[in-house]
Design brief:
Strand content: 15-25%
CATH class: Alpha Beta
Main location: cytoplasm
Shape: globular
Keywords: Cytoplasm, Methyltransferase, S-adenosyl-L-methionine, Transferase
EC number: 2.1.1.77
Pfam families: PCMT (PF01135)
Structural class: alpha/beta
CATH architecture: 3-Layer(aba) Sandwich
Number of helices: 6
Bound molecules: S-adenosyl-L-homocysteine
Radius of gyration: 16 Å
Strand order of the largest sheet: 5-4-3-6-7-8-9
CATH topology: Rossmann fold
GO molecular function: protein-L-isoaspartate (D-aspartate) O-methyltransferase activity
Amino acid sequence: MAWRSSGLTNAELVANLARNGVYNSERVKAAMLKVDRANYVRNREDAYDDCPQLIGHGQTISAPHMHAHAAQHLLTYLQPGCKVLDVGSGSGYLASVFHHLVSDEEGGLRGKVVGIEHIPQLVQWSRDNVRRDGLGKALDNGEIELIEGDGRLGYPEGGPYDAIHVGAAAPKLPKALVDQLASPGRMFIPIGKYSQVVTLVDKDVEGRVTVEDLFGVMYVPLTDRPTGHGK
Ligand code: SAH
């Protein structure tokens, strides 16, 4: 499916993803239409290709079909007013999509999205991207917070989170992230070293945790911070 949904414009890409059954929700569609992927890539000519793209520092922005899958699977926990943590926020693209999903423009219910990324240059670039995409106000008022840190530890100050998205593969489920999940709450996380599986981690109202494997993927790993990226 990886390259089937490419388009010539953002609207075409978002429509093709729906046509190919990657998502089926009007809310996901509306949010993805509000976020122009061209503002989150290095090479704008390839912005609407349904494939990952290098964003520098050895990292990639994930393919649009993975972004759409993530939003669709977390959707129940992406209601207006919800709190979201995006681990390995990279380009900032998903943080912006999540922001639109948890913010009710008319009703005034504003959620909060925290993106945590360990490469400082990407953190700065992602803030610029989000601003270029018209969300400067959300950054200024803290509805979107893009911070530098080790995502494996999460960001307890901002939690508990209704939804946690992890954009890089963890060798095993990080306990800190499970702890920071609200009851109820849901995490979307690729797990595995060589063969990786996207896993849904659900915490119910009583705090019971269940895990469901979804499908195999190839993500960059969650790692220690690379050297040479000092402040
Ligand atoms: N979802 C993002 C980025 C995906 S690539 C996007 O689509 O743009 C995964 C990102 O995770 C990279 O930017 C990488 O730097 C980051 N990352 C890897 N290990 C990390 C860690 N321990 N803490 C925080 N970020 C990490």
